[in-house]
Amino acid sequence: MKIQINGNKVEMPDEVRTIEELLVYYKLDDKPVIVEWNKEIVDKDNHTKTVLTEEDQVEIVHFVGGG
């Protein structure tokens, strides 16, 4: 399936079907992130329920510490 992540078209493996699986795939599942899916913010409680489909647009913002 092809989706757009942070402005880049990406071919995702078949096992990535939900936002939660997408975050696991990118190793962001244990980090504080905000996910926008088709221009709507997805609450963390809904990451397992939100199913990705062809041509979805996903924006992932994660926080990086520093000083």
Automatic annotation (TrEMBL):
**UniProt xrefs under InterPro entries:** Beta-grasp_dom_sf, Mopterin_synth/thiamin_S_b, Thi_S, ThiS/MoaD-like
Q: Report the leader peptide range.
A: none
Give the Gene3D superfamilies listed for this entry.
3.10.20.30
Going by the entry's taxonomy, the superkingdom of the source organism is recorded as: Bacteria
Q: Name one Pfam family in it.
A: ThiS
Q: What's this protein's name?
A: Thiamine biosynthesis protein ThiS
Species of provenance: Pontibacillus yanchengensis Y32
